[in-house]
Structure formats: C-alpha cells, structure tokens
Amino acid sequence: MIPLLHDFASESVLVFGGGPVGARKARRFAREARVLVISPAFADADFGSARLIRAAPDPGDVGGWLNRADPALVVAATDDAAVNEAVEAAARERDVLVNRADESGPRRAGSVVVPATVRDDPVVVAVSTGGRSPALSRSLREELEPLVGTAGAMADLAGALRADLRGWPAERRRAALRAVVRSDAVWTALEDPDECAREAAAAVVADVTGTPP
C-alpha cells in the first residue's frame, strides 16, 4: 500500500456502525468531512460533529444509502459480516473508497487503511502497519507525539520564511531553510512564548548565507 493524504473538505463520509469503532472513525473524519453514521443503536461515545441516523439496514438496503449520501469514502464498522460485505460490494460497484474496520492484513485494491496519526496542524504524521497490528501503530504514535511537539509552528515559520526568500537563488534558499528547520535555537524559541522565533530564524539565515532575509 502507498500512503496518501486526502483532503475531505466538502466531501461526505458514510459510516455503517454506531459502536465504539464507528464512533472513532466518525470522529476522525468529522474533522473535515460531512459524516453520516447509520446504525440501529449508538454507543455512549463521542461521534464528533457526525450526523447520527437511527436505522438498521440489511444488506439489500446498503446501496440505497450510498446513492443518497454520494460519499467519497464508506466505512464498514458493523458487527454483522453480511452488512459489511454488502457495504464493500456497493462501494466497489460505485468506485467509492472503502474502509473495512472488521478486516486486518492484506487488502484489496481500492481499500483504505486509516492510520494512527500525530497532528500539530499543519503537520500530520501517519503510522500504519497495513492493518496487521493497530496496537503497534498506536504505540509508535505515542512515541512520535513528543517528537512532533511544535512542528506545526515550525511549518508556519518556514512557510513564511520561504515566501520572504522567494527571490533568492534556489540552492541558496534551500540551504537557508534547511538550516532553520535543523536549528536547535529556532526550535527552542518556538517552545518559549517569550522568545522571538522569527528573529532566531533570521539569525540562522544570516549565519548560513551572510545575508539576512
């Protein structure tokens, strides 16, 4: 499998299953997408901003729900294998991405594995074991969390600096930006609200190139 990032803004995601797994999937995708959750009952869990629809579709009803929702992604997270199979079949008939929460290991083409993620916007780090070991994915995510730290702030700073250096020769600009993102002084400044990270970055650029940004 090849990891990709997908922008779900203005897209719909359809989740079948209102248990803890369905809630976790709904909460994840509701960060960006319009999420509908179809289930006869719902766990006492956080579904984010998802819309909960109380219904008990049998396998023959699944296609109709996809036709109405027109989703970019469908999640099969029920405890009924027949319904989950029908969800996958209906998604494939319509060339819609599908995530089977009840499967592990190798997946068929068009399947989506939802990775464990560490996020400090706009930075997102994803970890996947191809569905073989969610426990390992979670463990690796926990190890990565302190490393990501203030990566979002660094990304914003580097993006602003990149815009400032747009007129510089490409190699000189790349050298300056590499030095900034590798600078302990800049990372430290980002962690301390009383420090000026922009000034620290400018000092690094001047040291590397001989010219301030």
Characterise the protein shown here.
The protein has 213 residues and is of the alpha/beta class. It has 2 domains: 12-114, Rossmann fold, CATH 3.40.50; 151-209. It has 8 helices and 7 strands; from the N terminus they run E-H-E-E-H-E-H-E-E-E-H-H-H-H-H. It has helices spanning 20-29, 62-69, 81-93, 134-148, 151-164, 170-181, 184-191, 197-209; strands at residues 12-16, 34-39, 51-54, 73-76, 97-100, 116-120, 123-127. The strands form 2 sheets. The protein has a 5-stranded parallel β-sheet with strand order 3-2-1-4-5, with helices on both faces. The protein has a two-stranded antiparallel sheet with strand order 6-7. Helix 1 (20-29) links the parallel strand 1 and strand 2. The chain is elongated. The chain starts with 11 loop residues before the first strand and ends with a helix. The mean pLDDT is 90.
